[in-house]
Amino acid sequence: MTPKGFLFSTVEAAIKAPGRKDLALIYSKKEAYIAGTFTTNKIKAAPVKLNIKQIRSGKGQALVVNSGNANACTGKKGIQDAVETAKLVSNGLDIKSSLVYVCSTGVIGTPMPMERVRPKISELTGNLGRSTIQDVAKAIMTTDTFPKIVMKKVKIGSKTGTIAGICKGAGMICPDMATMLCFIMTDSAVEQKTLDKTLSDAVNKTFNTITVDGDRSTNDTVLIMANGMAGNPPITEKSKSYATFKNALYNVMFDLAKLIVKDGEGATKFIEIEIRGARSEADAKKAAFSVANSNLVKTALYGNDANWGRIMTALGYSGIMVKEEKVEIILSGLKIVQKGMGTGKDREANEKLKNREITIIVNLHLGKSSAKVLTCDLTEEYIRVNATYRT
Amino acid sequence: MTPKGFLFSTVEAAIKAPGRKDLALIYSKKEAYIAGTFTTNKIKAAPVKLNIKQIRSGKGQALVVNSGNANACTGKKGIQDAVETAKLVSNGLDIKSSLVYVCSTGVIGTPMPMERVRPKISELTGNLGRSTIQDVAKAIMTTDTFPKIVMKKVKIGSKTGTIAGICKGAGMICPDMATMLCFIMTDSAVEQKTLDKTLSDAVNKTFNTITVDGDRSTNDTVLIMANGMAGNPPITEKSKSYATFKNALYNVMFDLAKLIVKDGEGATKFIEIEIRGARSEADAKKAAFSVANSNLVKTALYGNDANWGRIMTALGYSGIMVKEEKVEIILSGLKIVQKGMGTGKDREANEKLKNREITIIVNLHLGKSSAKVLTCDLTEEYIRVNATYRT
């Protein structure tokens, strides 16, 4: 069951190619508190620029999302198109335009085909309630191979609420943040500032710890709407139930982040990289991303080759302090490097790599900080997907 | 003709696999001035550690190089093995051990098979003069598909000298520096400090501007020996002929650097990326490498897809100041982006991409600094080469 008071709609606007639903609407019957985090890329898509302004109000009621066109690098027309879309949706829903958020994902640099989007908006608003959350999760997919939905119940006092999240993203994935759209809905009542803070904390621990290819897109967006229809007294950071809500939200987002990595373009393996014993958390993160983004590490893992020399190399150029003679590497439970040298277990380790889920723990033995990053392997299929993306 | 007084030798020591020459010797009849630059990776191979110490003397006479094993992450034994190799070579040549430099390239983390290397050294020193510079260039190859040799004449006063350079490297290529060994020999007389400075300046402008996959290895080394046998008065920075020598050395190294990129693992295209109009040279370099190391840019170029949105994206996350509305992108002479937006020439641009050599010029229109980086595309073959490297 989705959170109370949220309705969905999807239509086909043939934005990139005909034959699939590519325009979706999420609507809350009640005006909701909204919070969001957006790409740190200096080049931001038109709708992202609008959302960043608009979200200062902390209020929202509808999200309209298209796939197939990112509406990025589209100049003034891009902004006008996003504004017009919001306007048409707000007319159809009879709500203020400032409560409608627009999101786009797809090809960069092509103007939105408004001649096809425009006439579909009344169908979109008119059909509200005739689509499911699954339909929306499908409509926002680009190179994703499966829709990504996570739902959790959350009991606040006597009132049980629901947090439902959907997201899309498979390539161009790296903090801060990913080529990623994520929409979270909850009927639990949460005070706006608390919603803001809880979301950005959770983004740091979830979406900002995943990488597929080191690229960060122009469109990355996480939005959460809380409409309060579960009826609990609004949660603040001081509420007894704050931790409950916070954990539930974290879990929804972490599961979504994992789904993105599992659906990494062409990926055959899910890889968790943990750096321990770093001098600072920043160091640990740097090292973890250096290993996670190394094409040589990723191809070795794909080839079932426990080529730990490439992990050492990536640690060495990560820019942090590394003492070769202290490094320890444990691959899926097997110690393959001790004091900077191989333990002679490469053959056994190659066997471990045949699993679809792999953990790499590196202990730098220089301090007490740690960080974890999720990633996937790099395969010929990634190349094929991305060499032919626009054709 | 190779520079006067340099002799070569190669033997098969079956270091990784039998059937090819994998141990090479470069020897100068006269003690030479030597200068070198080494990897900035915190994890350095054993021979690199030794060379860094030894080169303080500024003198050298022999380089012994093996392929198939990097002698990196091999602990104390690795150091002992490199020392022993130098010792055996110095005995065979009857020169001081401190004049022998050892270099290794190949798999990381496997101890050197000294039981196979040791007995081959007397053959190596004994055969001096029976191999050519081509043989050496072949013996140091790993995933390289062709040997890399560049020679230039340099006239200093009345004396014509020669600069000959060989190098290897195809993957794990990024500054500062590449998985790369480069050995340069000249018979021109050059004062040691001048040799030092000229080399490191040239490395910055050549090998430090190339990238294949963003990885930087543990073994990168550039060494130059100048034995003075051309008979010119030793060149200093104040010599009238300094510019001549400097340019010749730069040209040798730039041509070698280009050969490495052209031989990039699996590469089908040679790509020159120039950032103009940046606020500083550092900014320009950062942006150039951000574009050059983007898997998404590299796969698009491979797929003949002028997907300039990915270039914009890579500029946007490069960490430098970018103003979307000012960006201009020229792809192989064709303006595809103006004021941050597409010019509608993507189809024409796709045609341009079918050439093997591609130039991308980005003008940020924010300042007067520029930087150039050389790279290649990313293909399925890169994945295959690197997924199976140790098998």
Q: CATH fold name of the largest domain in chain A, please?
A: L-amino peptidase D-ALA esterase/amidase
Biggest sheet character of chain A: 8 strands, mixed
Instruction: Supply the number of structural domains of chain A.
Output: 2
Strand content of chain A: 25-35%
- Supply the CATH class of the largest domain in chain A: Alpha Beta
CA(first)-CA(last) distance of chain A: 39 Å
Write the CATH architecture name of the largest domain in chain A.
Answer: 4-Layer Sandwich
Number of strands of chain A: 14
- Helical amount of chain A: 25-40%
Order of helices and strands of chain A: EEHEHEHHHEEEHEHEHHHEEEHEEH
CA radius of gyration of chain A is 22 Å
| Approximate shape of chain A | globular
Q: Which chains share the greatest interface?
A: A-B, 62 and 63 residues
Structural class of chain A: alpha+beta
Structure, described:
Two copies of one chain form a homodimer. With 391 residues, chain A is an alpha+beta fold. Chain A has two domains: 6-262, L-amino peptidase D-ALA esterase/amidase (4-Layer Sandwich), CATH 3.60.70; 270-387, Ubiquitin-like (UB roll). Helix content of chain A is 32%, strand content 27%. Chain A is built from twelve helices and 14 strands. Chain A has helices at 46-54, 75-93, 114-117, 121-126, 133-139, 192-205, 242-262, 281-292, 295-302, 308-316, 346-352, 380-387; strands at 6-11, 23-38, 59-69, 100-107, 148-156, 159-168, 181-186, 221-226, 270-278, 328-331, 334-338, 341-342, 357-363, 369-376. In chain A, strands 1, 2, 3, 4, 5, 6, 7 and 8 form an eight-stranded mixed beta sheet that branches. In chain A, strand 10 and strand 11 form a beta hairpin. In chain A, helix 1 crosses helix 2 and helix 8 packs across helix 10. The longest helix of chain A is centred in the middle third of the chain and has 21 residues, at 242-262. Chain A is globular and about 70 Å long. The relative contact order of chain A is 0.13. At the A-B interface, helix 9, helix 10, strand 12 and helix 12 of A face helix 9, helix 10, strand 12 and helix 12 of B.
